């Protein structure tokens, strides 16, 4: 019960902090207008030059550079108004406990004579507000349409209006539970699990559920559906921080799979303006390049872009040492890759019967 | 076993049985096709005589109360040259009777379609066609006639004459049609025809009595196309065979006129016997005309006089096998006589009958082939240049045709047989038709695909009265609108491959593209002649044309964009500052809005400075 009150407290605190930040901006703008001064926003710069790797937090962060968006500048007046509108709209969403999606924001703007040319433009303004307030869009109650799932013995308690206090166990529904706004804001009450297994693909997620991986390995299974969305990364972080569960990651045996694991562990450059989305102690179980030979997996040749991606990642500071570095080198040497499904060659349950236990054992020494 | 019988059918019977091929598959399509055939014939006739066309077309229901499909009277009247009354029955009552066999650009081919429409009308309603023609500007001849399908012959039911004041032709048929379904296509056809024929005045009266009038927009007619010889790449074996057949010297008919002619040229007073006659002929040989030389030579080989000559018919002079074949009327049987190669007449006969040498044939009968090219070609084809074409064997002909296709050193086809509309009339037509804010046209220079010359003309129009409902393409070929099968057309393919955003065009633009392909043979994909195939040469020309026009459009768009921006910038602060104020008021939790008037004033000052 201690967790719960903590969670509620931090959530409340975050909400209050956001609302008061928004109100402060509102007051500043109001007073500028009243004084005949052109109001402006100071937005931390998200240009490539201003994104740096922070060894302390073990993730990408923004540097000190920032840009001014002023209503005085005629070419910025429109986007300044859009940003003010978004702050106004988020304020309503959060105060009234309502949720929205990226697409919904784009359409909602039209009712206020705010003309976004297309959704990428409105998405960009949302990132601007994230940078201004240093809060993730989930705090704004704005979620992407894409959703991944979670399954396992985990009891949660909803905090969304109308469901407050209602509890569910995430092993009740075999298709798994969507990681949407309600689940993201729920309290994590209780679990018997000892590990969280994040898996890249929906197909194998289903296989794991069928094979009772959650029971056999006392685990919570999370389908990241490719590169993990922020809400999923945020849930993984909470499972790790609040419930103290180790997080392990299974992805395809290629350079993209390796990077999926890395983003869960230490974030992406796109979200360099945000914190609390990473799981610094997460472990990449596989499929490693060295596993391809060790487990004699069927492979397919890499494409040009796969190889280019390896060279790109070799420049990333996070890939300069240890297993991360070694596996990239082996991938580059093999010039071949293997899907998670490759284990099917040795039977449908080979991956859960043989590979997973072996890798979980191996991970303890990592 | 059953016994099979074979019988020949006439061309009209053939078309009757295969009317689907010619676009007469159902009442809807047939009505549309009939309209096209008559209107196109009328326009072609006016073009040929450089008369500014004035076309009237009407479709009237025989019984308006009936439901579709029903009988309609289709009448098309023009102010063209008319047709000599002598030729009217055959021109409209015979399939495959036409004057368009020469090689030049024309809308219809062979005048086939009009007769097909008449045939279709007759088989669906059993009503005759009425043709009124005035060719001399004084009298007008009216024929009411039916087609005898089996005999491919006209049957004249009525013929009368009237006084007239100007030339022209009017054709009226009764046919089964479905105007409720064909109507929109027919209206599109008429309006688009007026776009690509801006020098014509076209009036259409529909079954409801509504008149669609498209006045003449330009007074100048484009230059008419000239008839030219074929290009070597554009002929096949059958065409060569036909060309040779009419180069090949024909055996002159032996009638009283011919005998009189021979007598005159030889200076004969009385009927001489065979040897006296030949003696006389040899003396005067160089003064004799070709037909007379041929007849006299034949008489020498058959050893007959005039009396004998009148009793036979010369069937074949086969120089290759050294034989003359003739039919003896008295004996009613065929005879063959060997040619004596030693005879002084042999060489003469052989030269006359075997026709031109290959070298002469190539330079005389094809466009842009000179002696040097012809000689190079002969070497390429492994045929002797002095070889007489009349004596070539079948295999040699196939080899010749094959080599004509493959030889690469022929000059490109002569485009003078083409009649593009021209940039100015096209531009005027587009301006009048769409009333756009921007238009640009281009005529590419001539190009060719497999021996057929073609010219691409294209225009773009943007904005103005054009509705913003996305890009629309108007396709024309030889001044005919193409309305069906749009999807698989090469022009559509090229237009869709364009990255319009590069030319500052996005969303559903108010954009129209007019494409006109002129060629002696449009490479249609299907017999329906509604979609053009994607020949690489044609694709390249279309692409160049559209890219050129798109660049022009892009220049206009950026100018337009700059003007729009200036307009947008005006009152920008007046628009946005109140919005900012509204949002900030709620965000700050205040009740009353701030006083932002000062800011709007400052804003308009900034705007003025920039402009």
Helices and strands in order, then pairings?
The complex is a heterodimer of chains A (366) and B (611).
Chain A: H1 2-35, E1 40-44, E2 51-54, E3 59-62, E4 66-70, H2 77-96, E5 100-101, H3 102-108, H4 119-133, E6 142-143, E7 149-151, E8 154-157, E9 167-169, E10 177-178, H5 181-184, E11 187-191, E12 195-199, H6 202-210, H7 213-216, E13 219-223, H8 230-242, E14 247-250, H9 255-266, E15 283-286, H10 289-294, E16 300-301, H11 304-313, H12 322-334, E17 336-337, H13 350-363
Helix pairs in contact in A: 1-2, 2-4, 3-4
Chain B: H1 11-17, H2 27-48, E1 54-61, E2 70-78, H3 88-93, H4 112-125, E3 129-134, E4 139-148, E5 153-163, E6 168-177, H5 179-196, E7 201-205, E8 211-214, H6 237-247, H7 256-266, H8 274-284, H9 290-302, H10 306-310, E9 312-318, E10 323-328, E11 333-338, H11 344-354, H12 358-365, H13 371-381, H14 394-406, H15 423-434, E12 438-443, E13 447-449, E14 452-462, E15 472-477, E16 480-482, H16 490-497, E17 511-519, H17 536-569, H18 572-588, H19 597-610
How many helix segments of chain B? 19
Q: Sheet with the most strands of chain B?
A: 8 strands, mixed
Strand content of chain B: 15-25%
Query: What does the oligomeric state look like here?
Result: heterodimer
**Whole-number count of domains of chain B:** 5
Report the β-strand fraction of chain A as a percent range: 15-25%
Shape of chain B: elongated
Mean pLDDT of chain A, nearest integer?
A: 88
Structural class assignment of chain A: alpha/beta
Distance between the termini of chain A: 32 Å
Q: What distance separates the N and C termini of chain B?
A: 97 Å
Order of helices and strands of chain A: HEEEEHEHHEEEEEHEEHHEHEHEHEHHEH
CATH top level label of the largest domain in chain B = Alpha Beta
